[in-house]
## 1
Amino acid sequence: MVLQLFISLILLASLTLLITQGRRRRIWSVILLGGVAFISYLFIDNLNQSVGTNFIYQWLPHNILKAEFSISSTIGIQQMLVPLVLLLGGLVYLNTFFSDEHHSLHLNTLLILSLVGFILLLSSHDFLQLMFASCIFSLISFYLPDLMLSKKSIMLFNFLAEMSMFMALAIVYGKIDSVNLVDLHKFVNNGWHKDLVTFLLIFAIGCKCGLFLLNGHYFNLKYVSINRIADIIIFTSPLSGLILLAKLRPLFDASEFSSYVIPYWCGLSIIINLGISLFNNDLRIKLISTSLSLYSCASMIIYNDSLKLYSLIPIVLISLFLVILFFIVIENSAQPETTVFRLGGLWRSNKLDFSLAIVLVISLSSWLLQYPTNLITKIFIAFFIVSIFMIVKMVYWGTSAKEGTANIGLLYSLPIVCICLFLIYYLKSWTNIDFYKLNLVSLALFIFIPHKIFIKIGTSSIWRNDVLTKFYEILIVYPLKFLGRILWLAFDVVVIERSIIGSISMVTSSIVSGLHKLQEVRWINFLLGLILGLILLTAYLGAYVYE
Amino acid sequence: MSNPFAILSLIICIPFFGMLFVLTAKEDETSPNCNSSNVAIFAVIANLIMIWRVFMLIDEKQLKLQLFEKFNWLEVPEINLVFAVDNLSLLMILAIHLVILMGIIFIRSKSEPQKSLMVFSLLFLSMSTGLFVAADIFSFFIFFEAMLLPLFMLMGMYGGLKKTERLGGFFIYNLIGVLILFIGILLIYKYYGSLTLDKSSKILWKKNYGWLIWSCLAFGFISRIPIWPFHYWISSATSKVHNPLVFIASSVLPLSGIYGLLRFWPKYIPIDISQYFVWVYVIGTVTMLFISLIGFIHRNSQYKIFSFITVYYVMYLLGIFSQDKLILLNIGYALFSFLIVFGALEVLSAYIYQQEQNINSGSEGFLCRAKRLSLVYSFLTFAAVGFPISAMFTNNFLILSQLLSSNIQMGVILMLACIIASAALISEMFRLKTDTKECKLGKSEDLSVGKFIFMLFIVFMLLMSFVHPLWFVINE
């Protein structure tokens, strides 16, 4: 069934690429939404029909490199594809109805291709399909933002991630002479340069998942629309990073330092991202950092047990979708303002949005809590929900700086409410003690903690400076440019142009002028020629006599 | 396999005859330069059809030379000229024809005189074809040197400013390389006779000045490759040229050095010789890093493309020195898509430069209104940087894997150089896509439909090369 889904999605994407953007773009988007819904229904309806079947095409059957193109229909993959397919429908719905996009059809096509990429990535059994699928997300991440600044940074980091992974897998292949993922343990046992391979893979995963210090490209997405942010955050590189981490997990055991670096790095990323989500004044930054904190937590869980990928992905996806809905509601209330310290008290003019936001947060907490967790994850969930509650307080409480905009509308609110109520009822969260504890504590903090502390810290200059970009520019870009300039001046100009070429031309011109002078009719030139001839003759005779 | 129709001689002669037809082509007032361009395009397409025919005649499962043609050149001394092909040489010939065709199509509409450009381009194409078809040492040497003449003329006519200095460097470096290679060829003839290329392994290391022969051959070939200190003449000759056809021709020249090394590479190298290869590795990696850094800081898009070409040529050179037979084969296959990618990038860059001159504005933001051009340019840039959309991805994976296995420090620096050169291309693409007032004013001129369709064909070829990257490797 996965193969049929794969082919259907490719056909649908191809058809939409043929349609040009025009006045009827919304109609085409609705038709596309219908197509996605139909395909999703067929897939979910026939879910258990072809479990365990694999479609395999011998792409490269040569001894020099054996690689296959495969699409698998295991239970785990189907388990992951169900929320992905539903989420595709949800994002297409948001792009069609919740945005003022002129290119919604284009966006939706990219999302469909993204799902195709996820099918390839999940089904990959070898390096080549893995890297091919990973590059699909890099290319989609390039086309999704519509501003050059965002495109540049996201492309750069994705490119560096792909190159790191490429290099690491090239080293692995050089040792084990196989591209199959099942043979990775051979490298762990007998490999070489294990630290380098692990370092490269950690770097690649860090770029993809947006871990601390490697997340600057995601924060540059604040300049694009919230729909595009949602599409990138939920449906492209960050999620692919989690899957890559699970697929390449055995390689991380090759080196000892990964067991120290990764958990602490993920933990640090969680803390910092949650901090940014609390303290930064920009709504879009809050959205991005909130999402990245979830990915950091997911990375830590998958690192500890890669098999949890299959159960974790649906939780992460639905949580992110609820977060996106939450921020769409917030942004609708706040627009056109995106800076939090200029907001406040909007609950009076946006009662429906305020209620929606509260309902969304409660359903988010119930969704997150239904996953059996350890203490650290529970603490993370608690802080996560609290930070979301704080955002509600910052936007809706206090006194307003301006009049609020219109509510989100009953037509669009109703589906959201239905989703939330369905989740809370389906998960039976009201029977869970933790659910009550968490929401009561958050509500208490909501009421008693003054949110203005966060706003005040958020207005300090550190948040206005793009520290990471400057860090990379000072540490990497400027030294490279300086080194390039020095090498060009020192070697090309001084050594080669002036020394070697200059000396050769000087010697040549000296010889030519010498020969030219010999041609002049002067008695001394005849004498010089005579002497040269005598020297040559003497040398020849001497050599002859010597032999 | 027998070759009754001398088809290999035919594919050398067709561009040559095309050149003669171009010389006699009449230019009229209504469409200047179209006749010569049309004749040149026709000649190249005709030769492409013949090359396709040759592909059908050879057995692609065989790795050895086939379709031998032998001509008695001299009786005393006895010298025969032998032509033959295999998969590798045919792929090289095909790639060169495609890039030259691209260059001709893209400069077709230019108003400046083009007859001489077409004449020497076709002559260059003919001589290059002869090089890849040559199967004995003398024919190889003849075509190895003969391809310099049309290139010299092209650079002399279209080399831009300071071409005199560059021609001087071009002449000196190639003269030295030619002389040393000639010494090697003469020594081979003296001790082994008129040897065919598939028997070059007969040249022994320790007898008959074998070490001198191999050194001369290596020096002669490496002098064509942009490795330090030979990179200088190539960079100064190539990077300032804005005519795409001349740039392509001068960038194809290092290919002759790589090809020579691939053909003559000995089956066995003594350990006391191979221990000196580390110097080649050191110089090669430093050159790569050096050129990639300069390309990164340089604002000229031409130099960025040149640095990309140089980095990959040196990488392939280092791959040859890794002495792995399958890697040697892979380098040959990688060169096919590499040539097409850089040729296509160059013609598009030259097109943008030309438009920049025509509308008298900067090229920043040029692509934001030229949708067709933007699509093709983006695809080619992604293919060039190594994304899995062309055969460069799989072939480079194998080559880099081997290089990283043989020497990790060299491999890491090599990867770093590749990344920097790729970053230079990506930054250039972003500069062209930046939103600027030119974008909003609609000053950019997009590709014509015909050129766009042609470029889509090139894109399709590259995608097909990814789907089927190791086309003719036998199943051992």
## 2
Amino acid sequence: MFKISNARLVSKTESNVTVEFDVSSPTAHAEKATLFVNGVPTETVAVQAGDALRAAKATFSAVNASNFDFSAEYALGITGVRATARVSLTALADDPDFIAVFENKDTLSCEFGATVGNGRTTFRVWAPFASSVGVKLYDGNASRTEALGKRVRDGVWGGVWEREFPADLDGTYYNFVVTNGDAETEAVDPYAKACDANGLRGMVINLDRTDPPGWENDKYLCETDSVAADIPIVWEIHVADFSSSPDSGMRFKGKYLAFTEENTCVPGKPELKTGIAYLKDLGVTYVQLNPVYDFATVDEGDLGKADNTKDNFNWGYDPQNFNIPEGSYSTDPSKGEVRINEFKQMVAALHRAGIGVVMDVVYNHTYTVGGQALHDTVPGYYHRTHADGTLTDGSGCGNETATERAMMRKYIVDSVVYWATEYHIDGFRFDLMGLYDAETIKAVRTALDKACRAGARLLTYGEPWSADGIYIPPSFTRRVKAAGENKNMLIKNCSLSMLPARVAVFNDDARDGIRGNNDPGPGWIHGSADKTGTVAAMLNGTAKNLGVASHNVVYASAHDNYTLWDQAIGVPAGRETPLFYENATEYAVKRCKLASAAYLSSPGIAFMLAGEEMGRTKYGNHNSYNSPVKLNRIVWSRQAEFGELLAHYKALVKARRNAPELFSYSHATKETHGGNFSAVGLTVKGTRGGLSLWLDADGGSGCVEIDGKTVTEF
Amino acid sequence: MRFPEIKSCDNGVLEWASYGATAYILTVDGVPVSDSEDGTYRGTAFDASGLVSDARISVTPCRGTLRGKPLVVIYRVSDGKFVAPPVTGFKLDGEVLSWDPVGDGVRYRIVDVDFNVTYTAKCSFDMTKRNIVVSVCPDLGCGSFDFCDIPYLEGDGTEAAPYEIRTPFDLRTVDYYEMSSAQRGVVNCYKIMNDLDYNDVGALDCDSNMFTLRKPFCGRLDGNGKKLYNINVIYDGGYWAMFDFLAAGSVVENIVFSSPRISNRLQSPHSPISATVATVADVNYGTVRGITVKDAVYTAAGGEICGIATHNYGLVKACSVSGTFVQEGTGQPAQACYEAAGVVLENCRGGAVEGCEVVRLGVRGTECVGYDGSTYFNVRTVGGVVSVNRAGATVSACRCDALTLTNMLNNRNGFAGGFEWGGTVAYNAGIVEECDGQCNMTFNGNAVTKLIGADGEPTDDQCGTLIGKNDGKAADAP
């Protein structure tokens, strides 16, 4: 049976519009096509051949730039085909007329979402393709829908719908009801700040009442300890991993509140500190939390189920509501304010301990497309596409967001600033930052700088790669051209010297040089002499062809790939991997000492996977994103077995913190080359200021000195 | 139907959200308070700071679009705070917890052992498929909670009157007592009073009828020689054991596990989950003694299997195990796990395994296909009693009478060594003493005759009726 699909309006000129579509057989080119506007046929023309075998197109002159209505419903009818096909306007999101009208100054300066105060509540959403928008207000299971109106400024409607209610609707659950074409969709507010369990409804929230006692006195790390804040030593942790192990000694296992528990230890082992007490001893200056925005895969509605033979765990790189804390880490996800309050308690507790909080943010893709708030309000706008209109997949998760489009850029900027100001977040780690365009990251940095008094000192860094190499989506090219940003590039393809000095990237070249790739292959620590030069370059701050040393995130392990311990023992074992991962063998301990001595002596942001310092293992699992929590969680008892390695890390961390003249991040923003480290065989040797170091991967020995004093020697 | 929710309760002022209500019946200790001519209360805040004694305040919407139930709080003069009225009169009927109502139509906030919250308008909560409840209080809209004194078990937890466990559900409530007593530093005593039939437990989605006690156990559990039977577990997580963690000082003793059946999910050869099965504990820092595991059938689709404890830092004493352990699935040998032991998988520094007996143990592997298309069997290390005995750990006076190893990985698959099989211990870096190694042991159909094997040699030499490979001290070995 002959079918048409994927109909999309691809161009609009002063004289006509062109619709492209796919056909189930090439014979359709002899057919006639009719364009319907709001259900009314406007013109019938001959179908033309498209660029591909099963592609076709039709050009209509009855509709053109002068009478084009973005919010009308467009449909395509083909003779011999019973049903009409809805025509997508996604490609017109990059049309200059669209940009001029719907991304105007007023639209770009709007505060979206639900705002409440002084007895009034305002709802505002951007939906330029919609013919109507309402807000559905819930009262228990009952609901009513109230229409929103178009916001017109200076005679222009910029795609914004809004309505102010003369009532304080704090605590009310709501969704938007958006009619795009012939589809009416109930969509969560993309800017929702609170929601119910599983994030399927937004909630109006007066944020003042979510503040824990003393929140007004909570300060960013850089405001309470500017020296520590300027020497970033980041410890990457997942909220559930932090406390879930029974040996954590914490009550609130798997919850934000575990971070508020003080003086905890392994039960019956007071010498083995856990939680915040452990972190204070270790001396790290920041924790980086794996996703803590509301993600999709953990069922928040069934947390009390007794069936603990099934796991309900995920890393959380499946974003659902970008501006709301994840509910499963709260004690009560069904109440929108609870997760916010407990999240703030966590931040405040870390700040009290002298530790900054970095959020792992994943704006590069959405968990789903349909059913996701951004797409449901403006279908097609927020995601990149191939030439045929299908979604690109630079994230490896099925889609990637179009950061270069003004409203997506605004969304990211607004979101980051919101987390920074409302939750006092000290830094942001951008997942797959290679998928962001450079202008958006610059905009984020600029906005953060201005967001608050501490803004300019908040951290920003990310992964400079994507899952699809250097591919440039056609929709990206179309947009930057239309927007006059011809020099804008995806970060994965641009020179890092184009980035602001305070935007750092994970130095994967150095990581692989230190420990080897994820095959797993050998690195310098295993005796691979061709990698020694990479390690020396990292110590000099020049690895990865960076502009300045502050572009460096130096590290040996993160949540992705094998843990350092598993890599250290896994590579030499080859096919005969070790029987157990629990005991601190001399060979592997020395490999970890070499790795940490190298990166913790390098300029930039020092970064480690939580537990790396005590030989954290995932038993040879290099991608444990949905593995059982037992495999992922921190086992605090390992401190006993790995005491020697832990002491080595503590010494390096302490020395780094005590040497701002060597490791100041602010200084690194002006530093292009700071050392004379060189590689000879498997030995790295050299100095940088008062730092003197030699590390020999042959025998697994080394020495780090600062100002003539030994930091560690092994 | 809903009731006013508290927006704030600071400085003695109670403020609530109207949700469409325009008037309320507000009472203080039953006495109406009005701020309007019609006798109703029109405001959405009440200042209790002037009260001179503790008082019960009730706010019930009576006009407007919100028709609901009252908000009830107690104002406490001593600190000027609003608190939930206490819930009392807890009763347990099977697995249904009930309590006396607090006022009319109050909604209750229920907190479980994992601090998850559920709400109910009823005065009861069915825990049949839910976590054990630790707190019930009227919902104040927000706020913390206190552990409630819920009498799940008979007894007072002392040595003289231990908490009495009579049903599988009773055993689940141990987590509640351990959590609530942890703050007080109390060591609870428990006693199993009769055999526990797990057929009585309604199977959940996963067809499992026994769940791991996940809170660190610091108490003393006397099994009283009673039998736990009809245990059937199909688990999907990272481990299964009766206890997740036995803390230093804890004691678990005198329990008989009769014919337990435990199996776990298939894992990917590329992303092993290293799932473990142990009957009593995943991690033991305490004392486990006098446990009998009879005719166990444990099946792992990639993982570690043992009879008593996976990782032992404490004492495992006088335990007896018999059964069959099977490795199924497609696991790669180039990953962690795929080990088995009759009693303890890994005896860690400081750990001791004493006087344990494995009556009869069969371990069977499965043929798998590797990355390169070659085939191999997937079990690579088995100890009749202990798989790996670390430096600083001791195995003493233990024996395995019969150990049958079938489909074991061997060096003819192209793996040169690093795999051991021992009648008592597979790999020893610690001390093995007073173990005679008189094990009737077969390896892939061949009788094992050596007392101590040698690594890196032909397969048969990696087997020993006492120790597979010895890098430690074997006190009684020749």
